[in-house]
Amino acid sequence: MADIRSLHDAVADLIHDGDTVAMEGFTHLIPFAAAHELIRQGTTDLTLVRMTPDVVYDQLIGAGLAARLVFSWGGNPGVGSLHRFRDAVENGWPRPLELDEHSHAGMANRYVAGASGLPFAVLRGYLGSDIPRRTDTVATVVCPFTGAELAAVAALNPDVTVIHAQRADPAGNVQLWGLTGVQKEAVLAARRVLVTVEEVVPALDPRPGALTLPTWTVDAVAVVPGGAHPSYAAGYSTRDNAFYRAWDAISRDREAFTAWLDSQVRRREGATPR
Amino acid sequence: MSQDWTPDELMEVNAARALAGARTCFVGIGLPSTAANLARRTVNPGLTLIYESGAIGARPAALPLSIGDGELADTADAVVPVPEMFNYWLQGGRIDVGFLGAAQVDRFANVNTTAVSRGQGRPEIRLPGAGGAPEIAAGCGRVLLVLRHSRRGFVPRLDFVTTVGHGTGPGDRAALGLPGRGPVAVITDLGVLTPDPGTAELTLAALHPGVTVDDVRAATGWDVRIARHPSFTEPPTGAELAALRALKSPREEAT
């Protein structure tokens, strides 16, 4: 059963140094506020898992919290490079970043396997690509019925999955809608689950296309209005495309990035360092 | 003589034209999204746009910055989870055209979006990675590629094969078990290349107005094959240019 807690306490209790952490949300509902809380608490040596690292992981990588990244597309969508990610991979700044790299189809299926309690998933993927040469989590299997050779990808079972959702009820049942990405799979694959929400409402009335995560699949719910910004929460906010564009200049330079991190995250109002 | 259009506009207009007759298009971010949205406003109003974020049949009023802008979901016929998108819709063989960008292509239209070598002893230049491309190029009925023409982009040998086009030549796709036909055209700001039916090697099929064969040779990192009689693409119409500029303008204002 999910407890409704402060973001600080939920992050401190659920996410520890060295954990494998998936913070999912495909462009929509990216849990930025929870990531910023990780930065304030200095939780480090993390293996970060996300299909699209996006600006949220650029920040965590630049802050030096990530030892390893499991991903499938590391760009700033429609803008260009993730400069902190590139600096870590190319120059080891602020620390070297080990990569486990996949395609989107492979990552999605790795979560499906994790949620299904299977050791791997099967897909028609990676055919002829060099990707399998750089990872030990892709292999091939032969179909026992047809003899066809197919790709196998290892299951992903994060220690913790963090997502942002539109709302929860007082019992901790969670509801999200719009582009729901791989959140259901990432939640059900994880050992522990933290959900930040825009609001807690007395009852979750049905919404078309909404996904409900029963309270017993979630460990903690934290109320963080705007917790997806500069990503968005359909029905509550729109994507702050201007920020995504501005991130290019902020992140390109180590000093500018560090100044941004200090002023906008570490010393931010409400920051409660341990 | 000054012209009414830019090289990028020639590329975008011709990329949109390549979608004439298609029913469904899996849309990559960037130039492919521009082309696919322009196609809906010009040559193919009924085209179904599919974005990997989960939007099927999206009808954005302005060009989205990302593949997950809210308007894509708000205007879509259906919104599906990402594993379903890749497994049922793409791998299931339901999508006609995959439209992709590329950092580098080789003469067989293989694509690198992962990493570029700087030479021995120096770290490679890190690119975003695969995203959906390997399986989009495998599973869609056919593939269109769009990128600007330069020696940096059109290279004799890829440092990394992220996504297979035609491999090392004819028969490779079938041998690898890739279900779709693979790349049928590469649209650039200089012209259009298509794979030779016999050798699968990219061949300059058409030049944009004002572009010469020598321009293409100079911007291609290998001795590019030229069709016996390369044609010229039709100049953009006023309607095409107006639609393209309108599509881009709200986003530029928002910057």
List the defining traits of the structure above.
heterodimer; A: 274 residues; alpha/beta; Glutaconate Coenzyme A-transferase; ten-stranded mixed beta sheet; three-stranded antiparallel beta sheet; globular; B: 255 residues; 8 helices; 14 strands; 21% strand
In words, what does this structure look like?
The complex is a heterodimer of chains A (274) and B (255). With 274 residues, chain A is an alpha/beta fold. Chain A has a single domain, classed as 3-Layer(aba) Sandwich (Glutaconate Coenzyme A-transferase), CATH 3.40.1080.10. Chain A contains 8 helices and 15 strands. In chain A, α1 crosses α2. The longest helix of chain A has 13 residues. The mean pLDDT of chain A is 96. Chain B has one domain: Glutaconate Coenzyme A-transferase, CATH 3.40.1080.10. In chain B, a hairpin with a 3-residue loop joins β2 and β3. The longest helix of chain B is centred in the last third of the chain and has 17 residues. The mean pLDDT of chain B is 95. The interface between A and B is large, with 56 and 54 residues.
Number of strands of chain A: 15
Mind telling me the C-alpha Rg of chain B?
Answer: 18 Å
CATH topology of chain A: Glutaconate Coenzyme A-transferase
Question: What's the overall geometry of chain A?
Answer: globular
